[in-house]
Each structure stands twice: as C-alpha cells, then as structure tokens.
Amino acid sequence: MSRIGKLPIHIPSGVEVALSQGLVKVKGPKGELSQAVDPGMIIKMKDGVITVERPNDERKWRQLHGLTRTLINNMVVGVSQGYSKNLQIEGVGYKVEPKGNGFVFSLGYSHPIFFKPPKDIKIDVQSATRLSVSGFDKVLVGQVAAKIRSFRPPEPYKGKGVRYENEMVRRKAGKTAK
C-alpha cells in the first residue's frame, strides 16, 4: 500500500469538490482548479474526507496511487491557503522593480529584462532584492519562480544571481596566483 496514497484528504470549510469520472474540480475562496485523473482510480468522498484507492496491485495503479492523491491534495490546499515561493537577488546593481503591469529585472546584462506574470500569479516586491511569487496553483507558482530564477541563476564563484530563499549555492574557489 502506498504510504502517501492511503492518507485521507480533509476538505476545509469553504472548499467545494466535484468528482466525476476522470475529472476532479476544486473550488475555494482563492480560486478554482480542475485536474484530469485516470478514470480507473477509485476516488471517494464521504463526510468532508476524500480517499483515493487503486483497483488492484498492478504496477501502473501503484504508480498512480500516490500521484493522484497528491495532485488532489495540492488543489485543495491551493484554493484554501495558496502557495508562495520567495526569491532573493544577490549581486552589485542587481535589482527588481515594478513597472506598469510587469516587473523590470536589472541583472548585470546590457539590457533590462521585462517580465509580465500570468493572470493567476501575484508577485510581491518586498525590496529591490527580495520578491515573493504567490498563487493558488502549485505548479504555476513553481514554474513562474523557476522562470524568474532562469534569468540569472546563481553562479558558484561569487554567488551572484537570483536564488530561492533558502537555496544553498555550492561555492568554488577561484584561481590562485603563482
């Protein structure tokens, strides 16, 4: 039995879950999400608790068991609480500033980088070197944070670049003079 797949999903108040064959729709105070799941998986909802079961112990169903449960749980948590990723920018002259309906990143290139986030994503700039990406879709929040990080990933010699808040960058020693 899958250790993750057998865990129940508790539905908080204010969240509505609609189950149909092969589709799960979740609606809450922060937004609405839907996810296609394999129609062979057995998804039951009773008394505000969702359980995911597999039809048998074949390899395919064992693989999908934990995945299906996690996808549904991520949707329930997202529409009730939301997700957030914090990024920090390190380097002399590296900064971010809001401009119009997007953001301008100055990351040491010969040109500034303009980034407009998707409609369901909120980017909050706390300071010129700190920003937070938040939203109700965990996948989209992660993709936007990774896209921003890809503008200038942290380099190993001085640590300059865009990094996640608690990311550890392995530092290398520079050249030594003879």
Helix content: 10-25%
Q: Give the full name of the CATH homologous superfamily of the largest domain.
A: Ribosomal protein L6
- Overall morphology: elongated
Distance between the termini: 61 Å
Give start-end ranges of low-pLDDT stretches.
none
Query: What is the number of beta strands?
Result: 13
Level-2 CATH architecture of the largest domain: Alpha-Beta Complex
Secondary structure category: alpha+beta
Number of domains: 2
CATH class of the largest domain: Alpha Beta
Q: Strand sequence of the main sheet, in spatial order?
A: 11-12-7-13
Determine the mean pLDDT.
93
Q: Give the strand content.
A: 35-45%
CATH topology of the largest domain: Outer Surface Protein A, domain 3
**Largest sheet entry:** 4 strands, antiparallel
Number of helices: 2
What is the helix/strand order?
Answer: EEEEEEHEEEEEEHE
- CA-atom Rg in angstroms: 21 Å
Give an overview of the whole structure.
There is one protein chain. This protein is α+β, with helices and mostly antiparallel strands. It folds into two domains: 9-80, Alpha-Beta Complex (Outer Surface Protein A, domain 3), CATH 3.90.930; 83-164, Outer Surface Protein A, domain 3 (Alpha-Beta Complex), CATH 3.90.930.12. Helices cover 20% and strands 36% of the residues. It is built from two helices and 13 strands; from the N terminus they run E-E-E-E-E-E-H-E-E-E-E-E-E-H-E. It has helices spanning 59-80, 138-150; strands at residues 9-10, 16-20, 23-27, 32-36, 42-46, 49-53, 83-90, 95-99, 102-106, 113-115, 122-127, 130-135, 161-164. It has a four-stranded antiparallel β-sheet, with helices on one face. A three-stranded antiparallel β-sheet has the order 1-6-5, with helices on one face. The longest helix is centred in the middle third of the chain and has 22 residues, at 59-80. The model has no long low-confidence stretch (mean pLDDT 93).
